[in-house]
Amino acid sequence: MTDTEAIFQKFCQLTDGDKAAAASLTLADALNRSLEASGTAKPAAQADILNLKEAAVYLGLSESGLRKIVDRTYRARSGRPVNGPTIEFSQPGKGSCIRFRREWLDAFIDKQRIIPAPPKPAVIHRSRNRRDSRGLDY
What we know:
Blueprint: H1 3-14, H2 19-38, E1 49-51, H3 52-59, H4 63-77, E2 99-101, H5 102-111
Antiparallel strand pairs: 1-2
């Protein structure tokens, strides 16, 4: 029995004998192994860790814009007052690569979310000129 057949049998057991589902899972597993072997896919442990460039793309920012937020975070951490958002990141040493977890980026997005205020009730403004149709004040 080949590795692929063994994996297919394992997925058949996990899917209660659904051969179509087992075949799909086997194919996905084979593709993932192929990508990992070629070096084009990150291992599962690293899939949720992004470098500065990848994080900037994920957030829809430029690299320099994200670097400004990182610098602001350093200033805020040292106790200096800052204006603007800060972000959670990891940097083992000065000058080493800055890394972000996806959940940290998602938390940053949630912190920056703007919730619209409920609409205000309509207000009827009266004219400042309080005269009746005959021109008399009332």
